[in-house]
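PROTEIN–LIGAND DATA SHEET

This sheet pairs a single protein chain with one bound small molecule, flavin-adenine dinucleotide, given as SMILES. Inputs appear in the order they were entered. The predicted three-dimensional arrangement of chain and ligand is reported afterwards as a token string under its own label.
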Amino acid sequence: MTDAPAQTDSMFPRLDDAQIERLASIGARRHVEPGEIVFDLGSEDHGMFIVLQGSIEIVSVSHGEEAVLRVLERGQFTGEVNQLSGRRSLVRCRAREASELLELGRTCLREIMQTDVALGEMFLRAFVMRRLYLIANSVGDAVLIGSSHSSDTLRIRTFLSRNGHPHTYLDVETDPDVQTVLDHFEIRVTEIPVLICRGELVLRNPSNQDVAKCFGLNAGIDETAVYDLIVVGAGPGGLAAAVYGASEGLSVLVVESNAPGGQAGSSSRIENYLGFPMGISGQDLANRAFVQAEKFGASISVARAARSLKCDRKPYAIELDDGGSVEGRSIILAAGAQYRKLELPNLAQFEGVGIYYGATQVEAQYCGKEDVVIVGGGNSAGQAALFLSATARHVYLLVRRAGLAETMSRYLIARIEACQEITVKPRTEVEALEGNGHLERVRWRDRQAGASETHEIRHLFLMTGANPNTGWLRGCFAMDEKQFIRTGADLGDTWSMRRPPFPLETSRPGVFAVGDIRAGSVKRVASAVGEGSMAVQFVHKVLAE
Ligand SMILES: Cc1cc2nc3c(=O)[nH]c(=O)nc-3n(C[C@H](O)[C@H](O)[C@H](O)COP(=O)(O)OP(=O)(O)OC[C@H]3O[C@@H](n4cnc5c(N)ncnc54)[C@H](O)[C@@H]3O)c2cc1C
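PREDICTION REPORTED AS:
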């Protein structure tokens, strides 16, 4: 899902007569009169329409004004990615003349996608390309007015983008038309960011949850069902579990506190994930996985965090931060971890463009023969320093403590001391980051000397450790000393059942932990994806017990 296409015929393929005949046996016929609305902007309860006779038009609506995007004739069909999830329509559809249509409901459509390879591929390709077109042309029901100097603007923009929701962005500092819109909706500049939702609702600095609610991002999700599997977290591990679970016939609900993608979603290019030799952005990877999971029938709920797990009952129940709760016969915990970040206001702006959280060949290539800074005093920082010292011009290792002895293994300290390309800076902290687009300068402060220095350094590695997102799981699970969840053979006598625990199973039977949240995990996209897929095999076994 990388290149935004211009509107082309391949976005609007035509079914042949045999395909129409096959679908006619499972769809419902509908007659529409000229000018009749087939479905409207914001509606969520319609299926996909195939034109049998006559013609219909797809219309975008913005500030009450309409623009015809496409006319569909016999054999052509409506729909885009929302059709799979049941989210609200971003366009209006109207009959141009008296027409005969065939409506395929969501369940029917999913069945076709899974059983008919040719039709499934044609629908999915068209849906994905149409969504890209809508995003690229800001067609839809969202207008965000904000400022590039406001972090809440960035939060909302990031949330909309990471959820693939098309929107128009107006910047109060640079957009010449913004005053007209502000006047029309009686918005004061001091109130930004402001989101205009569906052309009528004005949300002032809304939370992500408010945004999701207004655009119906969680529409179509059944919260009364007892799911075979609930996955907490839609990072690589959770999305993999959703794809495998749903494709193998389990009813799956994914609960995500923000947007699909997890930590990987914040990476501008992942180059070490198998099958993507040119690299892939974390966002692209997440978008693809999201569509794949929905294609197989998984439900993915966003902007809702799991707040607690009722682990002393079956089925397990998860309470959500908006007051709702959901039940599952099995659970996969894939809530990941968060790297401890430096408290610097512009840190996020350089993540991936000068700030790195891992030191592999890829990052070493980015740094070339330049100077680098590593922050951290643990083994991972020591290993990174030694690794990078082989290629970088010089490595500065910034440590908060007086030295490395308390936090790093002896053998690493000895090698670092013997390496002329590494300078350890004890009691030193990063004070400021500067740059334009890419990190260009780092200022650090030697607390003992009380002096600050600015260096022209473009590469900073944060090896300050990661905190698992396990705060909400109080008392339920065996964890290691850093609060990562212990699984399988590591459970020791915290396991209570007669059968041995499955790999990845936590101390609660039927609850699994995958990816970065798991004690001893390898902090990589591939391993999270591998564990997410693997855990589903054991879920089947638990459900059969
Ligand atoms: C900037 C950056 C670049 C990286 N680059 C690479 C790379 O190039 N190659 C590589 O292999 N690895 C890379 N990594 C590491 C990789 O991204 C992680 O190892 C991987 O994302 C872990 O996947 P996960 O599914 O276990 O958890 P995460 O990716 O952490 O996803 C967890 C998800 O759970 C959600 N969540 C958390 N708490 C809750 C809750 N209570 N309720 C609901 N949802 C919750 C989070 O919002 C998140 O979406 C990078 C990491 C970062 C931060």
